[in-house]
Design goal:
- Helices cover about 80% and strands about 0% of the residues.
- It is mainly alpha-helical.
- The chain is flat and about 70 Å long.
- It starts with a helix and ends with a helix.
Length: about 120
């Protein structure tokens, strides 16, 4: 019963365990895959702003699989991310959909402008 209450407040414990397993997979990669994956993971957390834990866990799991496979095949990092790593990272995160933090801020901005406009019309 306490576990359900904790999960209600903090999110799924299994989800957190899977997230940690995926992060451990990324940290276990050899250079330069490890550093590249860590940089992408950091970028995903800032740029992606994913609000759904399941999506974030899936995204990191897929990233780990991509880099594990590339490391096993000896694929150069640039063959994975291309010449524009930012474009790669943004396309990668866009493939996962879901609501992002910026979506909430966009809604707030629109509502604030609408409210200001209504006040202006009321005067």
């Amino acid at each position: 019963m306490a576990a359900k209450w904790i999960e209600m407040m903090t999110g799924s414990l299994e989800q957190k365990k899977q997230y940690k397993r995926n992060v451990a997979r990324l940290e276990a990669l050899a250079s330069p895959y490890k550093e590249t994956a860590a940089a992408l993971q950091r970028y995903f957390l800032y740029q992606g702003g994913v609000t759904d834990g399941d999506i974030l866990v899936a995204m990191l799991g897929d990233l780990a699989e991509l880099f594990e496979d590339a490391a096993a095949a000896g694929t150069p990092v640039r063959d994975i991310v291309g010449e524009n790593p930012v474009e790669f990272a943004e396309e990668f995160t866009a493939a996962y959909g879901g609501q992002r933090w910026i979506d909430k801020e966009r809604t707030r901005l629109i509502e604030a402008i609408d409210q200001a406009e209504r006040k202006e019309e009321g005067q």
